[in-house]
Every structure is written in C-alpha cells, then in structure tokens.
Amino acid sequence: MAIKHLLFDIDDTLFASSEFSALARKNAINAMIAMGLDYDYAFLNKKLSQIVLRKTSNYSYHFNDLCKELKVKNPSKFVAAAVAAYHDSKSAIQPFPEVPITLLKLKEKGYPLYIATTGNSVKQWDKLIRLKIALYFEEVFVSDQKNEQFYKKILKSLNTKPQNCMMIGDREDRDILPAKKLGIQTVRVFVGKYSRESVPSQADYKIKKIDELLSI
Amino acid sequence: MAIKHLLFDIDDTLFASSEFSALARKNAINAMIAMGLDYDYAFLNKKLSQIVLRKTSNYSYHFNDLCKELKVKNPSKFVAAAVAAYHDSKSAIQPFPEVPITLLKLKEKGYPLYIATTGNSVKQWDKLIRLKIALYFEEVFVSDQKNEQFYKKILKSLNTKPQNCMMIGDREDRDILPAKKLGIQTVRVFVGKYSRESVPSQADYKIKKIDELLSI
Q: ipTM value of the model?
C-alpha cells in the first residue's frame, strides 16, 4: 500500500467548529445578560461580532472590549460570566459522529495519524482531548500558515515521500492546493461553510463524510 | 439594626477551596498519565507539589514546568490534558451546602452582600459564578493583601462606618485581625485547614457553619 501517513485538519473536518463557536458566543452573551447586563441579545451579538471581526478570533479579550465599548462600570462579573459560559461551551464540543470509529478503524489498519493545522499546539491538543480522540494521533503539526513550506516541513519530519502521505481537510486553499502541489494525496471533505464554495475542487478525492476514507 | 453591610471571604469560607484544589491537581496528573506520560502518580504529585510551592498557586505554567523538569519531548499534549482536567475540576466547585440558602435569607432580610478577597477580580467572580451564588453579591473588593488599608478602602467605598460592617472569614490573620482593629464586627468560620490553628481567635463571633450567621 502506497499511503503510509494520514494528515488531518481539525476545524470543520473532525468537528463542526463554526457551529460550536457560534453557540459558545451565544451562550456567553446570554450569561452576561443573566448577570444583569441590560442590553438586548441582538445588539450585544452585533457588537461582539464586530469586535471578533476586528480583533480576529485568536484575540483573548473580546468580552473585556465589549464591556469597554458599552462603558460598563464594573466589568469583572460580566467578563467572568461570559468567559465561563464560552469555555463551558467550548469544552462540550463533539466530533462528527462517524469520526471516532473511522479513526479507530484506520489505526487498526496500521496507519499512523497526524494533525496538520494552524494556531497553537496546546490549544489544538486541547480540542483533540475535548473531542476524546487525542490518543489516536501521533503528533500535531502546527504553523501560522498552511502553505507549501509547512507541508514540506512535515514531510521532512516524517522522513517520507509526498506520495506516501494523504492530507484530509475541508479547505481548498489551505488543505488541498499547497499539499497537492508537493505531490501529497489530497482528500477534500465537503462539510461546513467552505463546502458551499463554487470553485471546483482539485482534490484527488472528494467526500462528504470522513467514513468514506475507509473505501479510498 | 446596626449591621448594614456584610463582607465575605470566599476560599474555605463559602466553599472547600483547598479540597477542590487538591482534587483538581490529582485529576490533572491522572490526565497526563492517561495521555501516556510514563511515571507513577506519587512521583508526579511530589514533583508538581514542589513546583506549586516554588512558584505559588497563582502561577500559570505549573504543568509546562513539570514537563520541562522531566525533559518530555513533545509536552503540548500532556500540558493540554492537564490543563483541561484541572479546569474541568475547578469548574465543578460546589459551595458548602448551607451557603446558598443562607445568602438568600440574608438578602431577604435586606442585607447587601460583598466579597472581600485577595487576587484577581475576574477570577473571584468566576468562582462565584461556578458556585452559582454570583447574583447575591453587589461587589467584589480585591486587593493583593488583606490588611487594614484594604478594609479602610472598602469602608470608604461603601461610605459607611466600621460598626455597620461585618466581616466573615476563615483566617484570623487576614479576615479577623485587620478588620477588628478598625472596629468592623468579625465572624470567624471554623472550616478548612486554618480551623486547626491553636491560637485563640479574637473574632467577635465564632461559628462552624455559615447558617449560624442567621442567629447572630
């Protein structure tokens, strides 16, 4: 068998990342209202969305900024309520239902599994732990950007050839194109918001659910 | 009625803080072992205790330091597992059983309730939120040290006289002595590790459970 190493994206590939983020923000806003913040949900949601857009989702002080914008006098209790509700929601993430059994079957077939993702490695391991699939993975490769250089580094670290690797992800620009350019086999999973892009995918395989991997 | 404002300590007064911290650390160590860290529990617990002692409990990188000491090669997954288990345990804190009903009865009697504590105000509000008693409190007063100056500041902020205030806490040195010196009424709650001190308390009232407040 040619393929020896399987690389996975996490967000919107192994779990419904965007949906859970939206839910976490909703729960956070409701927790601030429950603590006595006297604004309606739609207004707070709009303000918060603007802050998230401006500061990106990796910023840690969205709720502090929201309180500052609203000129809240003693913001600590609202920030604490929002952060607690947000983290509780983030802790309750679940994988797509077919994910755990598919990963287990791939392990039984002898494939070592890896994560190739952007961001912070402790945060990405935290997601795998929350999703209860951490034990299936050998290593998490992280980088600021998913570009050719990143995939080259992974190949070097695994001491393997591109044709012996397969990258599985939901984003054409990050998961498919740079990996394919190097000769890595690519699988595009059509889930989440990027599945609605109109540009045709150049991935070697196109699937809707991760369990279809087993028949590739 | 003379007493108008009630000030409470949080840790080991409203909940079994030391017990929950010990449990959180135990769960964190077990989570690292479950993730494949190959050392026995007693050894890891000893190492971690030394780090906590050295860096104090307010330090944020105990588990990173532990991995560094053990020369763990890819520490991210162990750090993530430990932090997740630690936070989950900290999120599950419960008040002493008589606390919520006592606070509610005090509110019904018209007393405004406050927290006087050390540390960070968002973290202290987070505890009140986790304990599900946050709505009972008007304000959280925080300071680096619980000394006379801190209690003076609180009196000023509440625009009240010491004899109209009552401070309730488990620690003679922080909750009782400095408050009593200013003329604030003091209640020592004999729970947790400080209840075993042999020095006699100078508090105006001594109780074993918080519901005894209702008959003072």
A: 0.84
